[in-house]
């Protein structure tokens, strides 16, 4: 695994940071590999209470014997702190110089050990961030924990992933389902399939077509095809409309499947939308954020399916996509819509999952979770 080089030539490489790409880490050492750019916890370099008391006592003694100027010359504190420590020492002696927590005296939130084990197990198997872990535990009836506590636990265990927030582009959202749909084609992707002889292997070139509702992020359709021809896409689109209803608008990029090369002319896709009385909205050139709802879904599909599974046939890919679309719509919480499932927003389907039910990456830990909660 290569080391990450600093972007500036005058900076040395950082051997503690590693790059991970298109991988799903498993096996020994995964606890550190799950940081993806994080670092193991460093030893606490703060001075002990004894060292702090010695330094303060020395400053107070200098203040009493040589004056304020000599004490300030030693450095390490302000004039106000010197007089405060002197008054504290006169009231309680050396024990009064022991540093105490300033500010509110509220104790630090502590949770049972079994909950820490559950949070770390969820982190290592799913690589969810602190906010998602907190929301999933709360909505699934496991525990009520704040995301700040989860983040501190990640820091203590060396599983944090510090990153700078990316600048957000312009945001928009329709106010009701079936008001705006997003369609896009992603690919090509290659599936390695065995030839008839069983020895040689060949690669099947495929594309993925997705359809997402803007308001709810509900996956209206997800299919894999071996061609980019528009005719099968239109048949599939009519099936989605028959099943989910007719949208007011449909947004696509400026690909040749959706837009005619000559301005003002309608292709087969545009004519079909006109027949269905659906307004066709095209994205701005070189502005993928315009179609950002489905672009975000492609990133999720890549990290949770394409990077973790190997398909040996077109049927395997179709089965995996159908399974993931069902999980995404009815069982996966979405942070941009208030940690609800897309189905809750699209048609009001209630979220009734408890524990690790219907989470593919955690399904094998359901019995372990029950045992841990009973033992606690």
Would you write up a description of this structure?
- The structure is a single chain.
- The protein has 13 helices and 7 strands.
- The longest helix has 18 residues, at 49-66.
- Among the domains are: 50-97; 180-330, Nucleotidyltransferase, domain 5.
- Helices cover 39% and strands 13% of the residues.
- Helix 9 links the parallel strand 6 and strand 7.
Computed over alpha carbons, the radius of gyration is: 29 Å
CATH architecture of the domain at 180-330: 2-Layer Sandwich
Give helix % range: 25-40%
Strand content: 5-15%
In the CATH scheme, the class of the domain at 180-330 would be Alpha Beta
Which sequence of strands runs across the widest sheet?
5-4-3-6-7
Please count the beta strands (DSSP E, at least 2 residues each): 7
Spans of at least 5 consecutive residues with low confidence: 1-42
Distance between the termini: 40 Å
Count up the helices: 13
The biggest beta sheet is recorded as: 5 strands, mixed
Give the overall silhouette. Answer: elongated
Structural class of the secondary elements? alpha/beta
């Amino acid at each position: 695994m290569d080391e990450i080089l600093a972007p500036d030539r005058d900076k040395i490489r950082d051997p503690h940071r590693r790059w991970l790409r298109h991988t799903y880490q498993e096996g020994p050492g995964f606890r550190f590999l799950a940081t993806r750019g994080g670092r193991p916890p460093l030893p606490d370099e703060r001075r002990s209470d004894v060292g702090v008391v010695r330094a303060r006592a020395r400053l107070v003694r200098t203040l009493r014997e040589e004056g304020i100027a000599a004490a300030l010359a030693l450095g390490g504190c302000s004039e106000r702190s010197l007089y405060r420590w002197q008054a504290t020492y006169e009231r309680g002696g050396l024990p009064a110089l022991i540093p105490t927590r300033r500010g509110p005296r509220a104790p630090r939130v502590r949770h049972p050990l079994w909950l820490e084990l559950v949070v770390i197990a969820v982190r290592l198997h799913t690589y969810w961030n602190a906010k998602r872990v907190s929301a999933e535990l709360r909505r699934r009836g496991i525990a009520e924990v704040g995301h700040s506590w989860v983040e501190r636990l990640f820091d203590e265990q060396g599983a944090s992933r510090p990153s700078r927030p990316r600048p957000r582009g312009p945001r928009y959202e329709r106010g009701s389902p079936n008001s705006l749909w997003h369609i896009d084609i992603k690919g090509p992707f290659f599936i390695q399939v065995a030839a008839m002889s069983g020895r040689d292997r060949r690669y099947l070139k495929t594309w993925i077509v997705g359809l997402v509702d803007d308001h709810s992020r509900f996956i209206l359709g997800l299919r894999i095809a071996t061609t980019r021809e528009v005719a099968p896409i239109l048949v599939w689109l009519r099936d989605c409309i028959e099943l989910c209803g007719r949208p007011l608008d449909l947004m696509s990029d400026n690909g040749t499947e959706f837009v005619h090369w000559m301005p003002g002319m309608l292709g087969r896709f545009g004519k079909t939308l006109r027949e269905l009385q659906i307004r066709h909205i095209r994205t701005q050139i070189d502005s993928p954020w315009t179609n950002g709802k489905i672009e975000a879904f492609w990133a999720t599909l890549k990290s949770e399916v394409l990077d973790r599974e190997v398909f040996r046939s077109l049927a395997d890919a179709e089965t995996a996509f159908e399974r993931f679309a069902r999980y995404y719509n009815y069982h996966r919480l979405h942070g941009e819509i208030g940690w609800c499932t897309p189905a809750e927003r699209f048609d009001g389907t209630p979220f009734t999952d408890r524990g690790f039910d219907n989470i593919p990456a955690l399904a094998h830990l359901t019995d372990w979770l029950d045992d841990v909660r009973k033992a606690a």
